[in-house]
Write a structure and sequence with these properties.
By secondary structure, the chain is an alpha/beta fold. It has twelve helices and twelve strands.
Length: 325
């Protein structure tokens, strides 16, 4: 090969290097975050998701864009917001709670991963936990067996307790499993259960009136959209009766409940990044098994205990993951 031809060839190859290097760069992905809650209520969960995504190599501002939409408590806005995200377009929608059911039709065009408080199979989101069957998958927070453990905690805190009220929404998929587990444990412990179904805020107010006439010794509150939204009114009502509240999510303890024991929600949202990563890399969400929580936390509220004249057993305090002073 002549010297001039060789130099020309090298020059042509060098000119192509930037193009080849650009072609090898991974495409910037676009993720949609959609929830019925106001931004301030769920910012810790979005931050946990961001941290999980970064650990998977998806860094916002570098190779990832996150566009958030909030329905601010109006679930009827969710389908329209989902359509906005689909038209941008986004590669994936990440959602939570009550918004999830509204995205079944959207998932035909854009895959969805979720954290869902209820049972996704009973709610019609999946054919089974092992094989969802739709272009939707994620994490269910429902752990029915935890309800019996909460009654055991109540007995440990209040050895003489004999009557407990359960406040829960019967429309929350899987609530009957939680209630069954609670009743079975209550029978073993010799505790009588009073059940107050609260599918709406109005039903919750009616339950307050009934409980005022026949106060229980403690309230067990199943976490669901109705009770979570009304957690402060529930705690305020119970304080008025000088009755302790126990539930499954730490937000209830932060709102004044005596004790909570259940999934560490922030960890569930961090784990959700695993699903987002798999889907963004091309895996079919219909074939990704739905997970249940593996990280749990016990939160004790000393301030609430002091108000009610209750002392936590030292052994229980030693086991607590967090104590609210």
């Amino acid at each position: 090969m002549k010297r001039r031809e060789f130099i020309t060839m090298l020059g042509s190859a060098a000119a192509l290097w930037p193009v080849a290097a650009f072609a090898q760069q991974p495409r910037k992905r676009h993720l949609g975050w959609l929830t019925t809650a106001p931004a301030g209520d769920v910012s810790p969960f979005l931050d946990a998701l961001r941290a999980g995504l970064a650990a998977q190599g998806h860094v916002e501002g570098r190779n990832l864009t996150i566009t958030a939409r909030y329905a601010d408590g109006d679930i009827s806005r969710v389908p329209g917001l989902a359509e906005e995200l689909a038209k941008l377009p986004v590669d994936l929608i990440v959602t939570q709670g009550t918004a999830t059911r509204q995205l079944i039709s959207t998932s035909a065009a854009v895959p969805v991963v979720y954290v869902f408080s209820a049972d996704p199979v009973l709610a019609g989101l999946a054919e089974s936990l092992a094989r969802p069957g739709r272009r939707m998958t994620g994490i269910t927070l429902l752990s029915a067996e935890m309800n019996g453990k909460r009654l055991e905690l109540l007995r440990e805190i209040l050895p003489q307790i004999g009557r407990v009220a359960i406040v829960a929404s019967p429309t929350h998929a899987g609530e009957e499993l939680e209630r069954k587990n609670s009743i079975e444990m209550a029978e073993k412990l010799g505790i009588a259960i009073q059940y107050y179904p609260t599918p709406t805020t109005e039903a919750l107010r009616a339950a307050f009136i009934r409980m005022t006439l026949d106060p229980p010794q403690a309230l067990v509150v199943f976490p669901d959209p109705i009770t979570f939204t009304n957690r402060r009114p529930i705690v305020d009502f119970a304080n008025g009766l000088r009755v302790p509240v126990i539930s499954g999510w730490a937000d209830f303890a932060d709102s004044g409940a005596l004790c909570t024991y259940g999934p560490r929600l922030v960890e569930s949202y961090r784990r959700l990044a695993y699903y987002a990563d798999r889907v963004l890399k091309g895996d079919n969400p219909a074939e990704l098994p739905i997970e249940r929580p593996t990280a749990f936390e016990l939160v004790l509220n000393l301030k609430a205990a002091g108000t009610l004249g209750i002392q936590f057993p030292p052994a229980l305090l030693a086991r607590a993951d967090r104590v609210i002073e």
